[in-house]
């Protein structure tokens, strides 16, 4: 399967939907897409791993870096990774990635978060 990072909207927030395998070869593409999104100074950013087929340690490292970058510039980050996506969730759980990256099960969990007050997404 081909890899793609698509700019989308999830729960009314700017998002990057990751399709394919997030690994050593493709993690730099996610990093570049994240940098482009953060350069626009959004209030929040969602990374949707729902259609992601595989996640290795390089992909997990890219997600950790994203969380650190987002926090440094005051952007609320949410990473959607449902338990039903067992190939990706296995890596997330084994690495205890949720300790460093804000993982949610579904976009519905994001929608219940506090909405931005200044009109920025």
TrEMBL record:
<protein>
    <recommendedName>
        <fullName>Anti-sigma factor antagonist</fullName>
    </recommendedName>
</protein>
<feature type="domain" description="STAS">
    <location>
        <begin position="3"/>
        <end position="117"/>
    </location>
</feature>
<comment type="similarity">
    <text>Belongs to the anti-sigma-factor antagonist family.</text>
</comment>
<dbReference type="InterPro" id="IPR036513">
    <property type="entry name" value="STAS_dom_sf"/>
</dbReference>
<dbReference type="InterPro" id="IPR003658">
    <property type="entry name" value="Anti-sigma_ant"/>
</dbReference>
<dbReference type="InterPro" id="IPR002645">
    <property type="entry name" value="STAS_dom"/>
</dbReference>
<dbReference type="Pfam" id="PF01740">
    <property type="entry name" value="STAS"/>
</dbReference>
């Amino acid at each position: 399967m081909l890899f793609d990072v698509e700019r989308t909207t999830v729960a009314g927030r700017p998002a990057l939907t990751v399709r394919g395998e997030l690994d050593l070869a493709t993690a730099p593409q996610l990093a570049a897409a994240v940098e482009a999104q953060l350069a626009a100074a959004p209030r929040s950013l969602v990374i949707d791993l729902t259609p992601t087929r595989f996640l290795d340690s390089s992909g997990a490292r890219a997600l950790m870096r994203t969380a650190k970058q987002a926090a440094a510039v005051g952007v609320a980050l949410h990473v959607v990774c449902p338990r039903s996506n067992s190939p990706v969730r296995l890596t997330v759980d084994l690495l205890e990635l949720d300790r460093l990256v804000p993982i949610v099960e579904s976009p519905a969990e994001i929608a219940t978060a506090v909405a931005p007050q200044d009109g920025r997404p």
